[in-house]
Structure formats: C-alpha cells, structure tokens
Design goal:
Elements (H helix, E strand, L loop, with lengths): L1 H15 L7 E5 L5 E3 L4 E7 L7 E10 L2 E7 L7 E2 L4 E5 L5 E11 L8 E2 L3 E6 L21 E4 L3
Parallel strand pairs: 2-10
Antiparallel strand pairs: 1-3, 3-7, 4-5, 4-6, 4-8, 7-11, 8-9, 8-10
Length: about 150
C-alpha cells in the first residue's frame, strides 16, 4: 500500500510538471518552495528559441488550476523581463494571505493559453495586501507595496 501511494504521488508530480505551454519550462517555484511576504521570491525557467527576442510577464495566481484567481502581475509598470533570461528575483514580496499559489509566465500580450504554469507552492503572509482588483469590505490595513524585479542572466 505504501508503494502505491508513492507511485501515485510520483505520477501526479510528473503530470503536474507538464506545462500547458511548450514554449517554457518553469523550474522554480515548485512543490516544496515557500515564499514569505517581505522576502525575495525567485522564478527560474527556460524558454524556446522562438521567444528569445520577446519580453515576458510573470503573474501570481491562487485557487484551483481550472478556475484560478489572478493575484498580481509582477512585471507590470515597465518591469517586463526578456524571455531569454532564466531567472527573476521578485522583492519584496507583497503581504498576501497565506496559502497555496502558483506562477504563470508568458510573452507580453500573448494569450494566456500559451503561458507556462508552475506547480502550487506555499506563500506565507498576513493578508494585509489584497489581490489586484479586490477591495476590502472593511477598512484596509495597508497599501500595496511596490515589488522590484531583478533579472537573472541569459
């Protein structure tokens, strides 16, 4: 029985690691990754050669994979990243509520059907910042802090 559980878990991981996109492979965040509000979150990927001259967006989502809730576009406001980079450090991470989140990455302005999605990972925060587009039903406890994106090397 224990072997069956391990085999099922391994199969689920293999299926989850297959992205909807053949243009990208996301390596991090994944599975055991934990992002903490106020710290740095790292996204690492590889992109197909046809996207090497493109700029990419990185989005944070939560909820289930078939009906995800958009949380934020880390690359908004002129922070697009060349797709040929392989790493982005996002800092400081906003204080979103603790829970399971995932990343999607794709070419700027492209259809999200062509984006790649990470697996779920743990996000630790107090929830003082709401996802984009949501408003507090009670008095807000804080403003949305700016998140800086620093790029990795090609």
């Amino acid at each position: 029985m224990k072997f069956l559980s391990v085999a099922v878990a391994a199969l689920a991981t293999a299926v989850a690691s297959v992205s909807a996109s053949t243009n990208f492979t996301i390596f991090e965040p994944w599975g055991e990754t934990t992002w903490t509000a106020g710290k740095t979150g790292t996204v690492t990927w590889s992109a197909s050669s046809d996207l090497l001259q493109s700029f990419c967006e990185i989005h944070l989502l939560t909820g289930n994979a078939s009906d995800a809730t958009f949380v934020t576009n880390f690359t908004a406001n002129g922070n697009l990243i060349p797709c040929n980079y392989t790493k982005a450090n996002l800092h400081p991470l906003p204080d979103y509520a603790s829970g399971q989140y995932f990343i999607r990455i794709g070419p700027n302005g492209g259809a999200t059907d062509n984006y790649a999605y990470s697996g779920f990972f743990k996000y630790v925060g107090n929830g003082t910042v709401l996802p984009e587009g949501e408003t507090a039903t009670t008095e807000s406890t804080g403003a949305t802090p700016a998140t800086n994106v620093t790029e990795g090397s090609a």
